[in-house]
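Posting this for the archive.
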Amino acid sequence: MKPGKKGLERIWYATFNSLRGLKSAWQYEAAFRQEALMCLILVPVAFYVEASLAERLLLLASLFILLITELLNSAVEAVVDRVGAEFHELSGRSKDLASAAVFFALLFMIVVWVSILFF
């Protein structure tokens, strides 16, 4: 077990770790930058369109799910790359699985947005 902070101090340090992770994702991950910029455009749209509260929350949730999934995908890729540059079937499989998760998050987002905006 690692010694650590407790209570509010732990939350304070965890917040800075999270912000450092976001900065790293922005700096090194083109896909995250693209999706984050798309979210910056779509979040105001979610508040502008005529939709119920539940629909609006679903529009926003689909965007956050996409960003969360992309961050996890980037984390998997970083760990695999840290282990080694040589090809290994399990390394490739883990990267492909994480990429598939992003694909489904993106597909989910598209289905939600199209369904609410056009049907």
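The chain has a mean pLDDT of 95. DSSP finds four helices and no strands in the chain.
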